[in-house]
## 1
Amino acid sequence: MHEVGAPQPVMSHAAEKPLNPASTMKLVTTYAALELLGPAHTWATEIYASGSIQNDILTGNLAIRGYGDPRLTLENFWLLLRNLRGRGIREIRGDVLLDRSYFSTDDYDPARFDGEPIRPYNTGPDALLVNFKAVTVLFVPEADNRGVRLVTEPPIEPVQVINNVTLTDGACGDWVGKLRFDAQGGPDTARLVITGPYARDCAERSRSFSLLGHRQYAAALFSHLWKELGGTLTGAVRDGQVPPGARVVAIARSPALSEVIRDINKYSNNVMARQLFLTLGALGGGAPGTLDKSRVTIRQWLTQKGIPTPDLAMDNGSGLSRTERISPRGMGEMLLDAYRSPTMPELISSMPIVAADGTMRKRLANADIAGQAHIKGGTLAGVRAIAGYVLDARGRRSVVVFIVNHANAGNAQAAQDALLRWVYRR
């Protein structure tokens, strides 16, 4: 614990030991991005046409180039294609090329972290990541009480959902734990069988899954939305790069970085953090962005700022990793530096407020510190971490870092909460 502006920490224990910080590592990634990219940085997704356009017909190929937009949602992708239709293209007499060359992520294995490849948090990065590569299943109890209807969004053709869910009485409780999700298939097609009881008391609930490969998902979603918009395609949707001489016909831009990092930090979005991490590598070391380029870019930035992190080990920048390491001192020094940075307001406002929002919304709800601290938490098996800023009862702001790596780390929350209360009251 170190008061901002003080020469020495008020309290320190084992601060030099490198530890797994879990999701507090997102603070390193997002602060580096604010300084290296700037709070107003945005990502583009561009559509190019090669060939002639006459009478709403493109005779030639269409190419969609992604630059790693972390928040290219279903709605934003639909608006981009709607814009394309508005530019006078209805029929594509050629192929649609998905240019995903801005990132290099060929060796990513979604099952590597915890053996749960269909969980959305394990979705890997991609230069053309659309809608987080998610398929959401909505559970809707039928009005006549005969069963549960499953609604898939988006309803893309390669994904088939088999409904073996039965409607029951009783309390909702752990509704997800009562169901079994059996995913079959691979990157090209997927069959998801959902079996088990669903209580009427649950009303409508939803669950998201990551089921297809990046190319296959983007291709299926384009085909679905393009048809919905009244467009036709005679060719295939496949990987490829923008052809020489092709011209831009539509562009979508992401929200500003200052808004994107609010999703990353407040809600601990691992997928968006990975996208941002690779963006730093692509811009710092040149495209294509790679994990190694990102690691070098961030380490050079920390060195130039004089922030001591000799034992820093970054894997993917999200904290969803067993190999990432940083010492509490390194994290604390970085947060002290961030408080002196011009981007300090953007970083702090991206962090969860204790007892108010994000991942800290339900924590310390009835304590006097409620609403007085911006704290990023991190949780993995064997890891509990907090890092951030506390505004105490006398108006002093302090940096607090508390990282526990232990088989019983799950029991550390009470001690971490006690520290936050003490810092506020001291």
## 2
Amino acid sequence: MLRSLRFRLPALFLAGIVVSGLVAAVVAFQLFQSYSLRRAKQELRREATGVTRLYVDQANSSNDPVPASQLEHATGDRIYYVPVSRGFDLFPGARSAHLRTLSRSVLDFAAIKRGETLQFEFTPPGTKKTYLAVAQPLILGKAKTKSVFGALVVAKPKDQLENRVVPLLERLGIALLGGLLVAAIIGVYVSRRLARPVLELSRAADEVSRGRYDVEVPRVQTADEIGHLANRFREMASRLSVAEQQERNFLMSVSHELRTPLTAIRGHVDALREGVADDPALRAASLDVIASETARLDRLVGDVLDLAKLEANRFTLLQEEVDMEQLCDHAYAAFGEEARRRGIEYRRRFDAAPTILSDGDRVLQIISNLLSNAFRWTPDGGRVELELAAENGAVSVAVDDTGPGIAPRERERIFRPFWSRDNSGTGLGLAIASELALALGGRIDLESELGKGSRFELVLPGRQ
């Protein structure tokens, strides 16, 4: 359960939301704390300026000062007086303003004498709280006789700033919980939407691993990676199914192809052993059959080995001068007897006599395979034609037949190994011809029309 994609997706999603929320909360807390501190200092500076101006006006006019308790009640802050010297009275002969006094040691009094406004923190006597304070110089007298008579300090506890942050933290906590709830709902929905096709693909993969290639792959109606994966997996399963069918057909075909000549060879060998074929003519005929069927077996095994070597890229090719006219004559003559026996109109047309640098035996094998395919599908009384031409630096050998033609959907499949249109034969001839043509640096082109025949054309590079 904990290792499943359905659990890990929403878990990771929620973890990301939590981490993002915590980072955002920390940043917001620091920004708000900095903002609150800056605002508190600005407020203290304004209050210190106002209170100082008030007491300066009252001292210059010799009026009774406003009691400090009233100002503290109005502002909510504490007001202190730092005298210029010990025992100095800011309002001599007047009713006391009840100003709390501080020692000059709590601030830089030299800066006060220079008329500077100071911001500082201190712990008032008799308390354990830290206060944030602003000290404003108290300057009395007329323009020419002005002098500093101390400083007025306005202070507020720092924990008041922290109290302002608490509501923010509460709201951030509520917002984070709400975000987690929404994220959990979205995460569960997204994980189910993503995990469902993945789990279905996983189950389909399990079936494929057991050899069931006809498993139904879920169709994902999206254009994302999951949809792409589902489509590619469906194609893979389909190709594996086709490959399995081709392998089954190949085994059936090869077993049939092997069994037929082996049965003939065994029958004639038994006849020779038992003395049934005493007549020299019958003995010679039996030996001819044995030789013919042995050659047939040799060709079949050779085809299988050739295909295996081609697919493993372990095929060795020779480089020699090849007289294409002589080679095509040789291939043409090999099928003359079959054409005569079946009444097939068998023609050749050589428009050139080129010489190329290639592997002559393999070129002959390709042409022979193309002719063998043409004779296999051409009905008795039909027509097969072999053409040789050279132009534009390339040599072409074409085989035309009047067979049934090849449907467009089958034109690519006929070059696959073990595939046969009528499920007979090994399906190796055209596959080997195509692979050999590519190995020789050429290709095989196909033109076909249903009901009229086909044209296979081997195109090889001319002599360099």
